[in-house]
Amino acid sequence: MFDIADKAQHRGFFRWKDSLCSCIKMHFGRLNRNSLLAKAGQFIRVAAPEIFGVRPELKRRVKTTGPDRTMAAAPATGPGSEKYQRILDAAVEVIAERGYFCSPVSAIAKRAGVADGTIYLYFKSKDDVLRTAIDETFNKFHRQVEEEFKTLKGPREQLEYIAQVHLESHAVNRNMAILMQTEVRQSARFIAEFSHHHLVKYIQVVREVVRRGQQEGIFRRDVSDGVVAHCMFGAIDELLSSAVFTGRVYDAKATAAQVMDVLLNGITAGSRE
Questions:
Q1: Whole-prediction pTM value?
Q2: Residue 72 has pLDDT above 80, yes or no
Q3: Which of 194, 265, 203 is nearest to 232 (CA)?
């Protein structure tokens, strides 16, 4: 049996459901009660968990074999959930295949295997889905570089590693590479956001490595670390564009080493006078 609070919530649920039916009828015209209830039920199955108190930050409890028989598992909804990641992956795939403006939310939902309305429980808009996918990709890139730098100390080797991971992004997630080289560049807003959030951080990491190499006498002191950083990003980015548009496959490690050799040593034969 329901307690008083449960009964109140139960009554509130059906009052909300009746109100929803009225709203649906305004949009769908003359529908009988069964049709209205069917559409209301479809919406409720998607939206009710969010509306009635299930929040993304809540986590399920699962049994374990240890002394502590409960532990926090991946959240059922919100960032980190399996459905959330499916939506992000589907968005990248669909937009890479069809283009941003030819990729409605319904197509993304279908690829992810969710209802159209479910997208809006996780994201504000299609822009928000795309922005989040890009953010997660580059956050992963920076975490990978930071982790490697804990043991990789040489400035030259660190630059080669950054270039290698950057080049590997095409093989790791070709759809994201296509999206970054084509779709994002068609939007001044997305370019500005990318430059402000991710390119700035990329350039800053490279500049710090170059400055340390200059201090250690490995790199020339009369060269701007900012120019080096932008030249490095530009060279790798152009190689990625070539891979996307021509289908060319690069050996990421070997190509990164060659790019850094050209960048640091030039193409002039013999020693520098």
A1: 0.68
A2: no
A3: 203
